[in-house]
Structures are given as C-alpha cells and as structure tokens.
Amino acid sequence: MSVYKLRDRWIADFYIGGRLGKRVRRAFKLKEHAETFERNEKLKEFKGEIGAKHVKDVCLKPFIEKYRELHSPTKSQSSRKRDEYTFSHILKFFGNPLLKQFSVEAIESFKAFRAKRVQVTTVNKELDLLKSILNRAVDWGYLRINPATRVKKFKENVKEPVFLNHSEGSRLIGVAKGQIRTMIVLGLCSGLRKTEMFNLRWEDIDFVEKQLRVRIAKGKSFRMIPMNDLLCGILMSHPRHKSSLFILHNSDGSRWKDVRWSFQKALKGAGLPQKTFHSLRHSFVTNLVANGVDLRVVQELAGHKDLRTTMRYAHLTPNRLTDSVKKLSWQTD
Questions:
Q1: What tens digit of pLDDT does each residue of 212-225 get?
Q2: Domains in the chain, start-ordered, CATH in brackets?
Q3: CA gap 297, 302 in Å, rounded
Q4: What pTM did the predictor assign?
C-alpha cells in the first residue's frame, strides 16, 4: 500500500502503531502531496507526537511468553531449543522492563556484554532473536518502532568447512555398522541435515525414480534429491521396523534423536579425528564443488536458501575462473 493512484487521485494508505494500529487513508490530487503527508505523519509517530494511544504497555517477560505461544511453533525443534537459551540471557540482562523502554543504547550494551562471554556468532544469533521479538511487538501493536534494527551485528570470520575427502568418507562407511552406517551414507550422498534424516520416512523414498523427498526441511522448503547407486543399495538393505514409518528408528519404533556416541565411535574405528555430524553435509557439498558441479545445482541439492552460503565452498575449485575465461575464443584479423 503506502502511496498509490486510484482513478484521478493519489492515496496515502498506511498504519500508525504497526499493522494492528490505526490505519490512515487520505486522498490527494498530487503524488508528492500524498508522499509528504505520509512522511510527516510517520515523523510525528517517530517523535511520539501521535500513535502513543495505540501502543499498549507490556513488559518483556509476558511478551516473550506471547512470542513463544504465537511465533515459536513456526520454528523447528532445534531453533526453539536455541531460542530458549537466548530468552534466558535476554531476561537475565534486561530484567522485565516495558517494551517501550528498549533503546538502541540498551541493546548495544547487551551486545557488548555478551561479546565478552560468548563468540560473536552467538551474539549475532541472539541479536537476531531480539530483533525478531521486537518486530513482533511492532506488528502486534506494542511498539511503534524497533530499536534493534539500528544495531549492527558483528562481522564474522568465515570458517573453513570441516569435511571428509573421498578416501576418508570411504573408510568411514567401511567401518560403520547398522543404522549409523545408513545415516553416514545419507549424509555423504544426499547432504541431508541431521533433523531431515530423523524425519525421513519410507514413503519419501522412490526406488523406481531413484530419488528421495525432503518434506520437513529448514525454512519449510521442499526438495527432491537424486540417489546414487550406493545410497539406493544401502536403503534397500536397511531393516524396517514393523510398526514405524521412520527409516531411522529406536527399538520401540520412535525416531532417533541423538547419534553423537555412535558417530564418534565410527570415526574412531576409521582412524579419523572427532568431527560433528554436520561435517557429513559439508563433505557432500565440498566434494560436489571440487568435482566441478555448478554452484546453482549444488545450492538446489543442498537446500541452501541463499547462494552466498554455497559460495563459501567456491574456493575449492580454484581454476574455475581461469578455465571459464579460456573458453572465450574471439577471432582477430
């Protein structure tokens, strides 16, 4: 909405006090008059001259409860667990002030305080959650503006992805036994995240077309992944539980939740140093890129929402730019 033309008039159409606040709609003959009106009203709102009566007084702690009830269910289980950790630190630092008492200075103080105790990547995630909380406060009519939008996050150093090369991956598959072997092959051959593997069901596997379906993925995105012969063979021989739909399951048919001990045992048996289970996903992406697969294709297979995430692996094909330029064959006289 904002400013748009309706027949022979320009309409200024906006909200004061967030989406749940007061809607303002006024018609003008000229577009610049409509834009000026909107700009002046927004400036008055920013200064607190208007809109205050539409903002409800609420403290941080009960609002987090409201956020948890209305917004958290849209997130994955791992994200909700991380949020709970962050909620505790936000409340510990700020206490229980009114939301309208939040300021840029206060949030900057929180940022500096946390940076002395945890890594900047953790601080940035905590700032993201605080920004999300205050954004919802604006949307639901409890704040006029979100001061967290003016607080810059720390610049993060991009870490080298930890991965297994072809030889290491083959050794790991060779020593692994049972369901952890299936999980390792799934990680190396499909790049599934751990949660995506836990949620994988037999109905998601198409042995005829040789592809698997990721229904519950990060960002709620759906994708199809082709299966190579190794992965097809492993899944075909994988034992099914008589009463469970999940491919990876406990003895009672419930899905797996923790594989750290089994994975570290397999790494030790293969003579490899300890790694996180996520390194299998890094290995999938890394080996695709190293073998010259187009980055857009890798992005689609890995389910990366942003190509910049995939570009972290681009340095693994150092000759890609040189080889590309060599393909130019301009003719000269």
A1: 999 866 655 788 99
A2: 2-54 (no CATH), 60-150 (1.10.150.130), 166-320 (1.10.443.10)
A3: 9
A4: 0.63
